[in-house]
Amino acid sequence: MNRRSTLKGLLAAGGAIAGLSLVEWKWHIVEDALHPRFYTRKEEELFSSIADTIIPAGAPPSVPGGPTEPIGALSTGTDKFLMKLLEKCYEKEDQDKLRLQMAALEKSAEDTYGESFADCTQEQRVELLMARANSEVGEEKEFFDFMKDQTIRGFTTTQVVMTNYRDYKVAPGHFYGCANV
Fold first, then answer.
1. Is residue 63 part of a domain?
2. Helix segments in the chain, DSSP class H
3. pTM for the model
4. Which of 11, 142, 165, 175 is the most buried (most CB within 10 A)?
5. Is residue 181 a part of any domain in this protein?
6. Residue 72 has pLDDT above 70, yes or no
7. SS3 for 71?
8. What's the structural domain count of the chain?
9. CA 96, CA 119: separation in Å to the nearest integer?
10. Is 71 inside a domain boundary?
């Protein structure tokens, strides 16, 4: 066995691993170039923060013997459900209305607190959403009601919630094929 060639190979492998970790922070640029998205990163971040505001993490499962970590909208993938639902199931005009209201919510957060909606605290985000819920402007109220309804729908129909909270079984009961008659 040649030690020099082995050491050279190990150093080359270590350098390659270090190089990959340095390039990792630029990976999203390559990903965006190869896989165009329907929503921008800011819109995706806004979807996530709205879903997290409506259903924050913290509710432990109620079924005995289930997982013990608390769940919320983000841990169940509700934000991704919202994005996919709005992308695939709604007309362009509805998507444009939603984007307009999301931009207005972002602007409201920046005007009120000087930071984006996602960077606001939970209390600030609740306050901004409640202002939309109690708004006299029909579009703002519709936006809040829609986001709330779809977030709750997405959360309550996930596998995690159905199995750990509602004790849902795909086929209830058990079939005994061979029974003594």
1. yes
2. 3-23, 27-34, 41-54, 78-89, 92-113, 122-133, 138-156, 159-164
3. 0.72
4. 165
5. no
6. yes
7. strand
8. 1
9. 24
10. yes
